[in-house]
Every structure is written in C-alpha cells, then in structure tokens.
Amino acid sequence: MIRALYTAASGMSAQQSNLDTVANNLANSATAGFRRRRLQFEDMIYQNMITPGSPQTQQTTSAGLQIGLGTRSAATEVIMTQGDYNQTSNTYDLAIQGSGFFQISRPDGTIAYTRAGNFHPTNQGVLVTTDGDPVLPSITIPSNAKDVMISQYGVVSATIPGQATPAQLGTIQLANFANPGGLQSIGGNLFLQSDASGVPITDTPGGNTGMGTLQQGYLEGSNVDVVAEFVQMILAQRAYESNSKVVHVADDMYSQINGLVR
User: What sequence ranges are listed for the domain Flagellar basal-body/hook protein C-terminal (predicted)?
Assistant: First the structure.
C-alpha cells in the first residue's frame, strides 16, 4: 500500500505540471507569435519481483513480474505549427509565412529569435521590437521616408523626397534551425539557441534554404487552440482525480491492516 501511495502521488504531481502548462498556453492565446507547449511524461523505475527471462523450469522462462513506481514530467515540447494571421495594416508589422525566425539583438550582445513581428522605428529610425531590441541586420528608416515597403523577400524600401526612385534601406534576414522545437524560451516572445536546436541557418526570406516569406501589415497570432487546451485541462483534471482516488483507497486498505492489530 505504501508503494501505491507514492506511485499515485507521482501521478498527481505530473498532472499538476500538465495543468500548469495548459494554463500558460491559455494565458498566451492572444500573444503574437506564441508557440504552445505540450508536456511529455515518462515512467519511472520498476521493481523486479521476478526478472523477465528468468527460468521457471528446465524448458520454460518467466515473462517476469515488474511493478512500476509512477511517472514524472520529462520535457515540455514546443509545438511549431503556424499561427493564424491577423491583418493590422501597420507598416512595420510583419508575419512569416512558412518557417524561420526574426533575429533580435539583445542588450547583452546575444542574438535571440522570435516569430512576433510587431516592430516599430525608434526616434532615430532603427527598427526595433516592442521591448526596444533592434532587428538584425539593422534597418534604419530615415525620418523623411514615405511609403515604406517591405517585400515578401525582406527588402525594405521607401520613397525619399528628392529621389526619383525608391531607396533600398536594407534586407531583413531570417534564421532557422534543424530542430526549432529545441529552442530555449526566455520570455518576451524570444527564444535562444540551444544544443538541442542546433546552430542557426540564416538566409533571406524565400531563399534557397527554405525560409518563409514575409507579409507586411500582418501579425502571426498564437498557435494555441483554446478548445483543445480546455479538453487537455479536463483530461488532466480527471487523471489527477483518479490518482487521488488511488491515494484514498490505499490509505483505506492501510487503515484496515492497522486495525487487525487491535
């Protein structure tokens, strides 16, 4: 019975982590470029009452008798499916149609990656995120620029008074990874490279390396399916209740055993 108590408790703890993950997904259902997480579980060690393959007779072997000791949270997988597009008609809002991430320069000098393309120019014309971190490669919009256009291939151009043709102001590059799901989330809609993600591959949008193209005046929303998350929340609740019932039953059986002594 004691073993059942600890096994069921591990299930309750795992489902609590599952519920925490669902809550975070729902909380970010309206966050631009957010990628939902899915908790993965793994079983814990087994107690071998009878080792599988041990001889029963001279001609037969045992299938074994193993008793599991519960479960635990193993990892949170980042789901990289495409989010819905929302038209904003804002000149500096960009959505990536396909794979890839915008590159962002952080204050400590490291490069972060994001799918959230809600950018704006500073008072000096530098294109930055909502937190003020500049986009890489750096793009500067002149104060007298008009009709700023960002093509699907990342070319930024604008009409400058006194010039007959639009001036090219730079080209936005995207980065991608062998395993985007292995990126490290750090908040602020940002990811960092990790050993699991591999090194970044950079290219212009729509390039030969399979980068997606850009859509000006759109933002990519969260890829959270609210209905699916509510279903997952119900499943987590029922699993938690089932494990708590095991704790109750094991405690009741243990109580009856203690009553035999009296």
Answer: 215-260
